[in-house]
Amino acid sequence: MTSFELFLVLAGLLVGSAIDASADRFAHEESWVTGRSRCRACDRPLAWYELIPLISWVAARGRCRTCKSPIGWSVPVTELAGAGVAVAAVFWAPPDTLTLTALLGWLLLALATIDLRTYLLPDALNAAVLALGAVMVALTRPAAWPIHVAGAVIGYGLLWIVEFAYRRLRGRDGLGRGDAKLLGALGIWVGATGIAPVLLLASLTGILAALSASVRRSAPLSATSAIAFGPWIALGGFAVWLAQSAGAPF
To answer: Which residue has the higher pLDDT, 221 or 121?
Structure first.
């Protein structure tokens, strides 16, 4: 592992920490960009040394040092996920897209984390995925614009049609518009041929996650149960992009 690759992995811990904090602020309708991290139980602002990824959580034994309220496992898990994104990029992305792949993974991690907590996918983050994908195409495969633009159109269009049809048939929303925007944004990365694998992976992992949640709650899912689909679109999209980067024929 080169020094730059090691830097990316360590940066991933910091990015993961920032993502967890931003998602928490977004869920509480605070500024998710400029807000200050604080204990939700006693409202005490956290000192800088309480924000060191992994180390701070372990040193505090997962509790606020003032009120002793538990600090959820989401903190170290998201930090490790940020580093995991960088590790995946290092192992599977070629040098010309290494940094772009890490940035994509971190944006998708932010979207997934926010969606899991709020059932919302911020337009700003979806737009960032789309814009970064356009940069990737322009820098690394400018002759392939048509297939990548087609991927964006198909990705958005497919889920928009599902959303529209469900609303007409059932009289209520069954899929958020943010999901269509996310798949469209990922479409510019994976191209038209990558949309089907993304949807397949997203559907399979989403179904497994929903069944697992149902078993844990000892309650069956109903037609009105809220399920965050964005995290599984994000996971499927990142997995397909990594597979394509490693030479997969789709």
So the answer is: 121
Q: Are residues 225 and 104 in the same domain?
A: yes
DSSP 8-state secondary structure symbol assigned to residue 53: T
State how far the Cα of 200 lies from the Cα of 194, in Å rounded to an integer: 10
| Rg of the chain in Å (alpha carbons) | 19
Please tell me the distance from the alpha carbon of residue 62 to that of residue 154, in angstroms, as a whole number.
Answer: 44
The reply to whether 82 and 101 lie within a common domain is no
Best CA proximity match to 108, nearest among 210, 225, 240: 240
What span, in angstroms and rounded, lies between the C-alpha atoms of 17 and 24?
11
Same domain? 85 vs 123 = no
Cα distance between residue 95 and residue 81, in whole Å: 21
Q: Residue 38: phi, psi to the nearest 5? A: -150, 160
Spell out a b/e string for 12-50, using b for 16 or more CB atoms within 10 Å of the CB, else e: bbebbbbbbbbbbbbeeeeebeeeebbbeeeeeebeeeb
Q: Considering the entire predicted model, what is its pTM?
A: 0.93
